[in-house]
User: Fold this.
Amino acid sequence: MNTEISTPLTTTPTAELTQRLSATPRGARLARRLTAQQLTAWGHPHHTDVNDTAQHLVAELAANAVTHGRVPGRDFELRLLLLPEGTLRIEVSDPRADRQLRFANEPDGEGGRGLLLVTLLARTWGVSERTVGKTVWAEIALR
Assistant:
């Protein structure tokens, strides 16, 4: 996915969860747990492929928001959307628009592999600008 291109949401979701969370490791863990619980409520129980994949994506995007998108005193936001065409859209927003997304370019480097994971797990993903900050989103099929 070209991170310079964003795909705005063009359909009305059939269900939605939006939650602001503290930009801390605890907030990132809570985002993953909320995702698991919400998907269970939407008919995709724990330990199913959809629930596990969504949890992995949220864990990565939330960790990035907490690690690289953090601004002291500001939260990050998790948004889960069930779209009518059988798609789950995951959005994680943070207040930092000044940091570019990076892919791993050193095999022994300590970071940069998270977006490779997102690329492998998501059907599509991208970045959207906000008035303050950015939203990194990913979509997966619910089948």
